[in-house]
Write a structure and sequence with these properties.
Number of domains: 3
Number of strands: 19
Structural class: alpha/beta
CATH topology of the largest domain: FAD/NAD(P)-binding domain
Shape: globular
Oligomer: single chain
Helix content: 25-40%
Bound molecules: flavin-adenine dinucleotide
Length: 438
């Protein structure tokens, strides 16, 4: 492994390249965007970098906090209180603490009791096996009842998985509840979430600087069009800027992007297997406001009549003085890319959302909006279905010296920056093991 190319400068690709560089290699990283960071990339708002998609950490996100420590950034992660709510039945409700559950009228008392007992049971189950071959819809209705499913979980899963929400395996929800339970304070009275002072782009930039300082390189705004296998072994990486030879390639990109650039060199059955994996895309509108929209940091929208799934008022978590006094509201919407709204322009999306924003806060009007931004990711949330363990793509592809590290491999945890780092480290380890064995 002399010439290593890494496609994708998201956190997974950068972490892998960093570990490979530490092992003495000089990876060349190719990224289609002009900045590193992938889904955690930033724009500037009020002179401060801000993620295009809202981001925070949980206290058990240990891989990324350890990496931040290593890069000298650990002390810049702030653990701040957050306030969560839920919109359901045309009303706002606090929804984060045991006391707020007591006041949550959309659930009857018997359903509340089943909800609490069921959640505690899930938080104490260690073994994923019983949850792997059953859908969350089935398991929740069987064990917690249809009221809990209908009122709480169905709308929340619908938010992330759209029309595939009823196919999501229970193992995904179990792991989310399991990890979240451990991330909350021991009293259960609220949750502190982690944010990197100056944005999470600092992790990506820290990795990029470290890779360069060890002799590696980053080719930004240089999308890879094709990975061809060369006669006599190795690969040719064809980018918009030219072609580069590499004896080893890591594709640290979403599955559909991998199929686009490498589909022609992988066996048809592998193409078919990867092609059957599904993921929702993310549509995210960021509003710069001159006043606060709500009192929550995070508002889940458990109401299928609303055209979006969540509202995140970032400046109810991070002080707005950092953004020159601007209030920042993200409107989150996970959709499959063939949904008509997914391809719509910024104004059309905003016009679709405005009446629903007014339902939540009747005082809200467009004069509050100073600026708006519109971001889209075709591949944002892999759909973990029953029996997913058997479908997880391998990091070692059927092609010698071609490796894959992608969100669809993360299991049973939900994808997130922490797991991009963890899996980036894993793939680098696999590549180095093969190198030393070969
Ligand atoms: C709406 C939203 C909210 C989120 N919130 C959180 C959160 O609160 N906390 C959290 O921890 N995580 C959150 N995440 C998830 C987190 O951002 C991702 O899990 C993580 O950043 C994924 O990193 P990655 O490197 O695996 O993939 P990506 O970030 O997708 O990186 C892949 C990179 O490959 C590049 N690429 C693709 N094809 C090519 C090509 N042909 N040539 C060159 N480059 C290419 C892409 O441009 C991209 O930069 C959120 C994600 C979304 C969408």
């Amino acid at each position: 492994m002399r010439d290593v190319a890494v496609v994708g400068a998201g956190l997974a690709g950068l972490t892998a390249a960093y570990r490979l560089a530490q092992a003495g290699l000089k990876p060349q990283v190719f990224e289609r965007y002009p900045v590193p960071g992938g889904l955690a990339r930033v724009i500037e708002v009020g002179g401060e970098p801000l993620e295009v998609f809202y981001h925070h950490l949980f206290t058990n996100d240990t891989a990324i906090t350890a990496l931040a420590d290593e890069l000298g950034l650990g002390d810049d992660i702030e653990w701040l209180p957050s306030k969560m709510g839920i919109w359901t039945g045309g009303q706002l409700w606090d929804f984060a603490t045991p006391a707020s559950l007591l006041r949550f009228r959309p659930l009857s008392w018997p359903a509340k009791i089943r909800f609490v007992i069921g959640t505690l049971r899930l938080q104490h189950s260690q073994d994923p096996t019983p949850f792997e071959n059953v859908t969350a819809a089935q398991w929740i209705q069987d064990h917690l009842g249809s009221e809990v499913w209908r009122t709480v979980w169905a709308p929340l899963l619908n938010q992330k998985f759209a029309e595939m929400s009823e196919e999501v395996a229970m193992v995904w929800l179990w792991r989310k509840i399991w990890l979240r339970g451990r991330s909350r304070s021991s009293s259960g009275m609220g949750e502190r979430l982690g944010y990197m002072r100056g944005s999470f782009a600092r992790v990506a930039e820290g990795l990029a600087d470290a890779i360069r300082s060890m002799g590696g390189s980053l080719h930004l705004a240089d999308p890879v069009k094709r990975i061809d296998s060369s006669e006599g072994g190795g690969f040719e990486i064809v980018t918009t800027a030219g072609a580069v030879r590499a004896d080893t390639v890591l594709a640290a990109i979403p599955v559909p992007d991998y199929l686009k650039i490498a589909g022609h060199i992988i066996p048809p059955e592998e193409q078919e297997r990867l092609g059957s994996l599904r993921a929702t895309g993310a549509l995210c509108t960021l509003l710069e406001l001159n006043q606060s929209f709500m009192s929550y940091y995070w508002l889940n929208i458990a109401d299928e009549t609303m055209p979006f799934g969540g509202l995140i008022e970032h400046t109810n978590y991070i002080d707005r003085s950092r953004y020159d006094g601007t209030y920042l509201l993200y409107i989150s919407n996970y959709l499959f890319p063939d949904h008509p709204l997914f391809g719509a322009g910024k104004q059309e999306v905003l016009d679709t959302y405005l009446p629903s924003l007014k339902r939540i806060n009747p005082a809200f009007n467009t004069s509050w909006i100073q600026r708006s931004h519109h971001f889209r990711a075709d591949y944002a949330q892999p759909v973990v279905t029953r029996g997913y363990r058997q479908q997880i793509p391998s990091m070692r592809t059927p092609m010698d010296n071609l490796y894959l590290c992608t969100m669809a491999q993360i299991y049973p945890e939900d994808r997130g920056q922490n797991y991009a780092v963890e899996y980036g480290e894993r793939v680098a380890k696999v590549m180095l093991e093969d190198h030393h064995a070969g």
